[in-house]
Amino acid sequence: MSAKQTLLTGLQPSGDLHIGNYFGALKPFLDVYKDYQSFLMVADYHALTSVRDGAKLRQGIIDIVRTYLAVGVDPKDAVIFKQSLVQEHTELAWIFDCLVTVPFLQQAHAYKDKVAKGLEANAGLFTYPMLMAADILLYNADVVPVGEDQRQHIEYAREAAAKFNNAYGETFKEPKDMILKGVGVVPGTDGQKMSKSYGNTIPLFASKDVIAERVMSIVTDSSGDKPENVYAIHKLVRSETELEPIYKEYAGKYKALKETLIDDLDAFISPMRERYESITDEQVIAVIEEGSAKAREIAKSKMEAVRAVVGVA
Ligand code: TYM
Known about the structure:
- This protein has 2 domains: 6-184 and 282-310, Rossmann fold; 196-276, Tyrosyl-Transfer RNA Synthetase (Orthogonal Bundle).
- Helices cover 56% and strands 7% of the residues.
- The protein has helices at 19-32, 44-47, 54-70, 88-97, 102-106, 109-116, 123-137, 151-168, 208-216, 228-237, 240-249, 254-278, 281-310; strands at residues 6-11, 37-42, 78-82, 143-145, 176-178.
- Strands 1-2-3 form a 3-stranded parallel sheet. The chain has a two-stranded parallel sheet with strand order 4-5.
- The protein starts with 5 loop residues before the first strand and ends with a helix.
- Bound molecules: ligand 1.
């Protein structure tokens, strides 16, 4: 048994990742994962709540693992795995569904936001937090690095653990979120949270042309000399000490500041983009298979204990 604590996070393979995903979740993971027993999951069943195109999802799964490798996660130091290859996740989610109430799940932001927009939520989106609780609790995760928008989901996971422990005796550990100051909500080109659904992203492996096009579209209706939306993105890739004199020198010159940001983003992204392009599908598939086999072993033994206490085994 390792004396290390356990760290787990996951991302949905539902489209191109953006720098919000990187700074909010992947970078915090990268900074500490070697100090923990670490798991990095592909949340493909979660993606089914929104993706309706099999070929696209299949490609998304490969691409997200390619991303994990390109940003520098070493598969020797983290279990990189695919949720759908470990059936215990959906099995445990069902058990949690049977413990929580409908009003409790109705408080979830993802569900509430959908309903508030007058859209119909599918039942998968409604029970989504219990699948995520299963992802986390199966591995006894202590810490879950995520962006601010996932805070409530970690609370749901704690709640699921508590409800289960209360009903059947101490079985699950209550996890903690790891949400870093300053990157919990990475803003997009319009100043709102960067999100694929708002069309305000800078893709993580964008070409210089795409970076330029997105940066030029950053909304700069700020009142002072400093374009806040440009600065908010700029400070992710360059220290504020370095930025201070630049923003002073080019005070009010939004175009020049945007051009500096384009160069800085490109310098930051291009080595990762090159690595991304050099990783083959075969390498990715081998990583998924190896990691998922390891995850399955752990999940299997945990579920044996769960099945026994709930009485189905
Ligand atoms: P997902 O796929 O929507 O997002 C992946 C991660 O990126 C973070 N993120 C951001 N952080 C800062 N600023 C932003 N603008 C921004 N946009 C996205 C998210 O907070 C997240 O950490 N439910 C999860 C996936 C999941 C999971 C898990 C996570 C499934 N099971 C178990 C942790 C543990 C999700 O949809 O993330």
